[in-house]
Design goal:
Order of helices and strands: HHEEHEEHEHHHHHHHHHHHH
Mean pLDDT: 80
Number of strands: 5
Distance between the termini: 103 Å
Low-confidence stretches: 1-10, 148-159
Largest sheet: 5 strands, mixed
Number of helices: 16
Radius of gyration: 30 Å
Shape: extended
Helix content: 40-55%
């Protein structure tokens, strides 16, 4: 089948007149050991670099074998380097006492560097909601800027008709709504965003809270700290409605947060295995609750009788 014109890409000069060996050598020439003091972290890097157990293992690995996979950097106008991929390797090298970091120097625009930075970090096994939120936002903004360029003629026509958000959703394997929700999280104050990362606040209530202003969000943080209780989805919706009506005060927040939530009612948990050992084998499973309740009634009666005797 004949290729469409938009699918056809002319070979470069290097492809025509250089061997694979020469191209490999050219790539190796871009790999060098750069002083760590000359490498700047990526601006507003959304992924956290933690000094955890994995970092300790990485430090030991680098001490034994060095940096196996070079970090990726781009050279800035002032001659310094900007780290695109390899923030954990840079940190581990510093902690291991190394003065240089093995890097591949690439020629990328700001938008291309942003997209590569996000893609490389998404290979990690664990990514926090806050990391996804800022990563999606940065990548979406970079894609929008790329879409405004007139030199991106190699993009297939079918993709050109899609919005940046649609393309991002396809690339990261999320629905557009889920991408939107994550990006909304970037409007949360740091304390609330940390609660989301810790799992104390779920995604949907967090999205509702993201529509409140900073003062209201900080009032909610204080309420959470005082009562050790986070808002449910229904409570978050109610607070957003009051805010949009211009009626969300500190008192209203306190009143809404003090409402009993179904998931905060105290529950009695009985370990089935332990309870079953105390129940006669001839009692069917479907009669377990009745047996336990009657046993508790008899035990309570016994405690009352003993208390009466002791009081005489």
């Amino acid at each position: 089948m004949t290729k469409r014109k938009s699918d056809f890409t002319l070979p470069t000069f290097d492809d025509l007149f250089s061997t694979q060996e020469q191209r490999d050598e050219e790539k190796l020439a871009k790999i060098r050991d750069i002083p760590i003091t000359e490498i700047d972290d990526f601006p507003e890097h959304p992924f956290k670099v933690r000094d955890d157990e994995d970092m300790i293992q990485l430090i030991e690995s680098i001490k034994e074998r060095g940096v196996i996979t070079p970090a990726t950097v781009r050279q800035k106008e002032d001659g310094r380097y900007e780290l695109v991929s390899g923030h954990r390797r840079k940190r581990a090298s510093e902690l291991a006492g190394f003065e240089t970091l093995r890097c591949e120097v690439v020629d990328l625009t700001r938008e291309e560097a942003t997209i590569l930075m996000v893609e490389s970090n998404f290979q990690r096994s664990q990514i926090l909601p806050s990391e996804k939120a800022f990563a999606y936002k940065m990548r979406l903004e970079a894609m929008k800027k790329q879409g405004q360029r007139s030199d991106l003629t190699s993009v297939p026509v079918a993709q050109k008709s899609k919005t940046s958000r649609e393309l991002l959703a396809e690339q990261v394997g999320e629905s557009q709504d889920q991408v939107r929700r994550y990006i909304r999280l970037t409007n949360l104050v740091p304390e609330l965003l940390e609660y989301v990362d810790d799992g104390r606040i779920k995604m949907r209530p967090a999205v509702e809270l993201s529509y409140l202003d900073e003062d209201s969000q900080r009032d909610i943080v204080e309420e959470i700290d005082m009562n050790d209780a986070t808002p449910s989805h229904a409570q978050a919706i109610k607070m957003r409605k009051f805010f949009e009506d211009g009626k969300l005060t500190t008192e209203v927040i306190s009143s809404i947060m003090s409402e009993e939530k179904g998931n905060q009612k105290e529950k009695i948990v009985l370990r089935g295995e332990r309870v079953r050992k105390l129940i006669p084998k001839n009692i069917p499973i479907n009669q377990t609750e009745e047996f336990v309740c009657k046993a508790l009634e008899h035990y309570n009666k016994f405690l009352r009788n003993r208390a009466d005797r002791d009081s005489r």
